[in-house]
Write a structure and sequence with these properties.
The two termini are about 40 Å apart. The chain has one domain. It is mostly helical. It is built from seven helices and two strands.
Length: about 250
């Protein structure tokens, strides 16, 4: 292998450290339902596809022949990929958390569904909401924004041997704030619904203690919650998708 060929292979490997790590955590690409070998080959394919565009960003680091000089670069690239992928996963973690609160608000938290983005058992309603949000990533072509963001990350976070820890913590804190405020806006109608309905049921139970109001009202509470979900599901999925898209484009 010539010196030029070895530098090219090393450049691709450096790119793979960031791109592959990011895709292994990115929602939609990193689902536990997708086999690991498929995710690995997808990461390799995306890395090779982006290499002609990004090889200039890593050429200087690849020309460092000393292994000691390359180790900090590889570690920094892996941590940068973790930062990008983990920040995106925060949005879906917030959606799962508030989806569980929605299921609890309408008394549908007991039936457990198939997990979509992780291995934990979640209420069936939460799995449905998460699945719909994941599918919207590909329907609305946001997966292309993921690739565009990866390309742009080499301008915002150039390849170097130093990982910017303070910058990363600030970005994670901003993502946590944005994601959970967005999820709170989505679940707001259900929280209000739960407070009002449970207050009314509690008041009725105090006025008629001889009648088990809570048990009688359970099916009506579920039916009313499902009607509310039917009327607002399109809006809150569009709101979440717009918030996630805005982070991908500007974050």
């Amino acid at each position: 292998m010539t010196a030029i060929g070895s530098n090219a292979v090393l450049s691709v490997f450096i790119l793979f450290c960031r791109i592959g790590t990011c895709l292994m955590l990115m929602p939609g690409f990193s689902s536990a339902r997708v086999p690991v070998n498929v995710r690995l080959f997808l990461s390799i394919a995306v890395t090779l596809a982006l290499t002609p565009v990004l090889i200039g960003s890593v050429k200087a680091a690849a020309e460092s022949a000393a292994l000691v000089a390359l180790v900090p670069v590889l570690v920094s690239e892996i941590m940068t990929g973790l930062l990008i992928g983990f920040a995106a996963r925060i949005f879906f973690a917030a959606l799962e958390t508030l989806g569980t609160s929605i299921a609890m608000a309408i008394n549908l938290s007991n039936p457990l569904g198939v997990p979509i983005e992780n291995n934990d058992d979640l209420p069936a309603l939460t799995s449905l909401i998460t699945l719909a949000a994941t599918v919207l990533i590909f329907i609305t072509d946001l997966h292309w924004e993921v690739f565009r963001g990866l390309v742009a990350s080499y301008d915002a976070l150039p390849v170097s041997g130093a990982f910017r820890l303070q910058f990363s913590l600030v970005q994670i804190a901003n993502c946590l704030s944005t994601a959970f405020f967005l999820a709170l806006r989505i679940s707001g109608p259900f929280i209000v619904f739960s407070v009002v309905v449970n207050f009314a049921i509690g008041l009725a139970n105090k006025l008629t203690p001889q009648i088990p109001i809570y048990f009688i009202s359970a099916p009506f509470l579920v039916a009313a919650g499902l009607f509310l979900l039917f009327f607002v599901c399109k809006q809150f999925l569009a709101l979440f998708n717009a918030g996630f898209a805005n982070w991908l484009i500007s974050g």
